[in-house]
Amino acid sequence: MITVVVDLGERSYDVVVGAGAAGLLPDVLPAGAKRAAVVTQGSIAFEVDPGVPHERFLLGDGEAAKDLSSVEELCRAWSRWGLTRADVVVAVGGGVVTDVAGFAAAVYHRGVPVVHVPTTLLGMVDAAIGGKTGVNLPEGKNLVGAFWQPAAVLCDLDALRTLPERERRSGLGELAKYHFLSGDDLLALELDERVAAAVRIKAEVVAADEREGGRRAILNYGHTLAHALETAGAYDLRHGEAVAIGLVYAAGLARRLGRIDDAAVAEHRRVVAAYDLPLRMPPGADRDELVALMSRDKKALDGLTFALAGPDGVEVVAGVDPDLAHASLEEVA
């Protein structure tokens, strides 16, 4: 097992990475937890035993379940069961489960402890760590949410065996992002070490900027276009696939702004291709719509805003010319 600490003072917690990590669940529950509400989806073939009396609560499948109605249904079901602050929520699943269950835990009784057991690579390196929870609106991704740090995160690599191949590969899009945040050749590492390396990067960034006041926004590298593609809803893309396209797009945009050179763009393409992820948008993508959607991104406080590579690493760049953003879409069309 590899343990990484997310250092937040009194609210610090461990992220444990390794095969069989879920077996540690009884050991990481908050002291005195009486019962556990295990939130998962019917399609997730991964069982956990929290070691205390527990009940399963099922969310719908797919991104459609990541909405306010799911949060309401979950909170009402917990109320009928009698969930209290002396209990704990255990979220078992991918980003949809940890986001919805984490947000519901944050607002139910104004805060119930939560432990995440991510079952997807995407969840292990991103969604389950850092306390960002939220749901989508028709107008955009993750527009309603809360910061609610978990008590622990258990990244059990055995869970990855339960994933369909495309879902497993989708998680590699988020892993690819960390290549450019770390500057290291993560492809040279074994999977557990690669996941742990990504977790360390995220833990360090979260510890420095828990509520996304500045630096934490670099974790959205590749996500501005990715979220626009997902919000448009007309394209058959998993999140990690959309992030992969977003990484290539961000590299091209950074080159147009004079922040990086051709070699850096080629390196983005090399890493994305090494994970067998898409380098281009689906045919027929509506560029005008995508630019409009990118302008609604939650980072966009001063015009079009992107996390972009540069001489000092990935940084947030505001006030990007919409015409330049539109023209850069040609490179991934």
Commentary on this structure:
By secondary structure, the chain is of the alpha/beta class. The chain has 2 domains: 161 residues, Rossmann fold; 120 residues, Dehydroquinate synthase-like - alpha domain (Dehydroquinate synthase-like, alpha domain, Up-down Bundle). It is 39% helix and 19% strand. The protein contains 11 helices and 11 strands. The strands form 3 sheets. It has a 7-stranded mixed sheet, with helices on one face. Helix 4 packs parallel to helix 5 and helix 7 packs across helix 8. The chain is globular and about 55 Å long. The mean pLDDT is 94.
CATH class of the largest domain: Alpha Beta
Note the total helix count.
Answer: 11
Q: What CATH architecture label of the largest domain applies?
A: 3-Layer(aba) Sandwich
CATH fold assignment of the largest domain: Rossmann fold
Q: DSSP strand (E) fraction?
A: 15-25%
What are the segments in which pLDDT stays under 50 over at least 5 consecutive residues?
Answer: none
Report how far apart the termini are.
42 Å
Order of helices and strands: EEHEEHEHEHEEEHHHHHHEEH
Number of strands: 11
Largest sheet: 7 strands, mixed
Number of domains: 2
Rg from alpha-carbon coordinates: 19 Å
Mean pLDDT: 94
Q: Strand pairing plus helix content: what structural class?
A: alpha/beta
Name the strands of the widest sheet in spatial order.
Answer: 1-2-9-6-5-3-4
- Percent helix among the residues? 25-40%
Q: Which of globular, elongated, flat, extended, rod-shaped describes the shape?
A: globular
